[in-house]
Amino acid sequence: MVATVRALALERFRWIDGHADVWAVFRDPEALAAVVRGLVAPFRDEKVTAVCGIESRGFLLGAAAAVELGVGFVPVRKSGGLFPGDKVTRRTDPDYRGLRHTLRLQRSSLGPGDRVVLVDDWIETGNQAAAVRSMVEECGASWAGCSIVVDQLTGDTGRVLGPVRALLAASDLPACGPSA
């Protein structure tokens, strides 16, 4: 299955104006279903009770992964959008573009019996994932790790995040070519 998932994701990957584009995976139901199954596979036996996803592609992949696992989905919002109730908030260290984000999680969405996996499309610095882990643990839940489509982490960053499972490494992607 892993080879099939990798092939489907790579077939739909492209560079546009120097930016990675994984949106074609969402348009193809076979590719999307395979990617979601691939994302949950490493955590299927980990007693996960909730999947977190960071706005925006993490909402789509995370919700689909939660359905596949038969557990709930917990959104992590970036600043600006409506998000009622008491929240746990973290300001991230700079991302690969040098931007800092304020992430928010509803405090009541997780508690001491929960075991959480973060699902997203790409991980570069790990700063957003580290912030989510910190918020999850502040709510009393335990952290299972991260499941990612493309892993671009360097150095020892992954150690802070717990297990990081990825369908593709950034080095697996084709070189950034001319604009498509």
UniProtKB/TrEMBL annotation:
One of its GO terms (biological process) is purine ribonucleoside salvage. Residues 31-153 form the Phosphoribosyltransferase domain. GO terms for cellular component: cytoplasm. It comes from the Bacteria. Pfam families: Pribosyltran. Its main location: cytoplasm. One of its GO terms (molecular function) is adenine phosphoribosyltransferase activity. Keywords: Cytoplasm, Glycosyltransferase, Purine salvage, Transferase. Pathway: Purine metabolism. InterPro entries: Adenine_PRTase (IPR050120), PRTase-like (IPR029057), PRTase_dom (IPR000836). It is found in: Cytoplasm. PANTHER family: ADENINE PHOSPHORIBOSYLTRANSFERASE (PTHR11776), PHOSPHORIBOSYLTRANSFERASE DOMAIN-CONTAINING PROTEIN (PTHR11776:SF7). Belongs to the purine/pyrimidine phosphoribosyltransferase family. Homodimer. This is Adenine phosphoribosyltransferase. The gene is apt.
